[in-house]
Design brief:
The complex is a heterodimer of chains A (395) and B (97).
Chain A (H helix, E strand, L loop, with lengths): L11 E3 L7 E3 L2 E2 L6 H9 L8 E5 L5 H7 L6 E6 L2 H10 L3 H4 L4 E5 L10 E3 L12 H26 L6 H4 L16 E5 L9 H8 L4 E4 L3 H6 L6 E4 L20 E4 L5 H6 L4 E3 L1 E3 L6 H6 L4 E3 L4 H12 L3 E5 L11 E5 L5 E5 H15 L5 E4 L11 E2 L9
Parallel strand pairs in A: 4-5, 4-7, 5-6, 8-9, 8-15, 9-10, 10-11, 11-12, 13-14, 15-18, 18-19
Antiparallel strand pairs in A: 1-2, 2-3, 16-17
Chain B lengths: L1 E2 L3 H13 L3 H20 L7 H16 L3 H23 L2 E2 L2
Antiparallel strand pairs in B: 1-2
Helix pairs in contact in B: 1-2, 1-4, 3-4
Chain lengths: 395, 97
């Protein structure tokens, strides 16, 4: 179990901008030019006429004040993402006007909280959250960023038209042929995170007894160290474009499980057996193809880690052991923090943090399978145990 | 091809994304904006004080580095937009990528 990350003391200062605001640890809590306009823009995420609404992060109280002007609103839930920050803000500014409104209910964000709708959030506080609210923050970012993520996905899919893989996809067998092939055993899942290098010996030892599914980004490291997975998974346009040489150093070449969006060069040059799959839910632009060439589905939220985990579960795993699944090292997008297995803050990207929450949600929905993590150096994954605590796995 | 691109609309969309917590969209909007600015400067389509522009761009970079997203939104909306409004109205277009 991860220890709680230490509380942080915040440094506050007022601004000399046209409209005063507070800067906390270098981050402006609100606009320094027009706080009301900003709050009204945020409030528009909550449709008029709603009787109940949720706010994540109070900031300087502008958003609750705007929403409380709505006569139809009967209850306003304000979820605090950082209690220390809220107390500090209350000591600097007067927040009693909205805090004493009978319609306001205060909550403190908890790691297991699901998002409540309709909601609006204080965007600055998403960067100032306490560790107990990291999971809530990531869910907020995922929800708020979903339209943009879909746009990006469609653009990426357009750059990698699936027609390029069709000559092989139409001929290769269905991934469903593999489902159930590792019934009630442990399945290893390797990803290419920084901790993978330190887990190779362990992975090698476990691989004597258990099948190994590798994400494409782990394949070069595994191959360079003499490890031949049973399956390599190539799911879509977001996987690394570098294509490892297909020949494994020893043993039979691994099978490739791929979606129509996989790199056609990788598919064409793969020496081992290939199996086609669709990522579920099937994207609208692939639905006609899925009707014409039906193949087994592997669930994915866009996260390769979730796809690999679901494949392991569909193989029949009673237990999935993760190696190198760190949720760090993404170079794209805004930076943020998660908590690692030592209870310390770990820098990552918003996208990787979102992938982490996707996997945690998947694990929570899969109670009949056990999930184990090899290293404390990566992000702590809720719902997993650490291998050091589970000696029977080695048996 | 030269297509009409409104700095104003990109700035407004980017600032709005940041103000709503849609950091990914804001980040991409900012990259797009900087790309268009670069092209417009290279094409000499902007009649703007280099020093003023440099000041704003420098402040943007600093705010981005510390994830100060509402400062980013303010800089875009209240500092960069006015700076670009007049020359943009004169130029009317910037080249598209």
């Amino acid at each position: 179990m991860a220890a709680a990350a230490p509380a942080r003391h915040h440094v506050l200062r007022p601004t000399d901008t046209p409209e005063a605001t507070l800067v906390v640890d270098g981050i402006h809590l609100t606009s320094g030019y027009d706080r009301r306009a900003e709050a009204e823009q945020q409030a528009r995420l909550i449709p008029d006429g709603r009787r109940e609404a949720w706010i994540y992060g109070a900031a300087l109280g502008d958003l609750p004040r705007v929403l409380l002007r709505r006569p139809a609103l009967k209850q306003l839930h304000v979820v605090l993402l950082n209690v220390d920050l809220f107390v500090a803000v209350c000591s600097w500014t007067d927040q009693t006007d909205w805090l004493t409104d009978d319609r306001v209910v205060l909550h403190v964000a908890a790691p297991t909280d699901d998002l409540k709708h309709p909601f609006a959030a204080s965007p600055s506080e998403l960067h100032l959250v306490a560790p107990h609210a990291y999971a809530v923050r990531d869910k907020l970012w995922q929800t708020l960023g979903a339209p943009h993520a879909r746009t990006r996905y469609r653009a990426a899919a357009a750059r990698h038209p699936f027609e390029a893989t069709l000559p092989w996809f139409a001929e290769d067998p269905d991934v469903a042929a593999l489902f159930g092939s590792a019934l009630d055993t442990t399945v290893l899942v390797a990803a290419g995170g920084p901790s993978l290098g330190g887990q190779l010996d362990l992975l090698q030892a476990l691989h004597h007894d258990y099948p190994l599914v590798a994400l494409l980004d782990a394949w070069p490291t595994l191959r360079a160290n003499g490890l031949s997975p049973d399956v390599v998974l190539a799911v879509g346009p977001d996987v690394p474009t570098r294509s490892p040489e297909p020949a494994a150093p020893s043993g039979p070449p691994p099978a490739l499980v791929y979606s129509p969006l996989a790199d056609p060069h990788l598919v064409a040059t793969w020496l081992g057996p290939r199996y086609g799959c669709y990522l579920a839910p099937v994207a609208p632009h692939q639905q006609a193809l899925a009707a014409q060439l039906p193949r087994g589905h592997v669930y994915s939220t866009g996260s390769p880690a979730v796809a690999a985990t679901d494949l392991a579960v569909r193989l029949g795993a009673a237990c999935v052991v993760f190696a190198g699944l760190d949720f760090v090292a993404s170079t794209r997008g805004p930076s943020t923090w998660v908590v690692d297995g030592h209870g310390q803050r770990l820098a990552t990207s918003a996208q990787q943090a979102g992938y982490l929450r996707d996997l945690e949600a998947y694990i929570a929905r899969t109670p009949t399978t056990g999930f184990v993590t090899c290293s404390c150096d990566g992000a702590a994954i809720a719902g997993t145990a650490y291998l050091d605590d589970l000696a029977p796995v080695h048996a | 091809m030269i297509a009409p691109v409104s700095f104003t609309s990109i700035i407004a969309g980017t600032a709005r994304a940041y103000r709503l917590g849609m950091d990914g969209a804001g980040h991409d909007g900012l990259q797009q904006l900087l790309g268009h600015l670069h092209q417009a400067l290279e094409a000499r389509q902007l009649d703007v004080s280099a020093r003023d522009l440099q000041d704003v761009l420098s402040a943007l970079a600093q705010a981005q580095a510390r994830n100060d997203i509402l400062r980013l939104a303010d800089l875009l909306e209240y500092r960069l937009a006015p700076l670009l409004a007049v020359p943009f109205a004169a130029a009317g277009t910037v080249p598209m990528a």
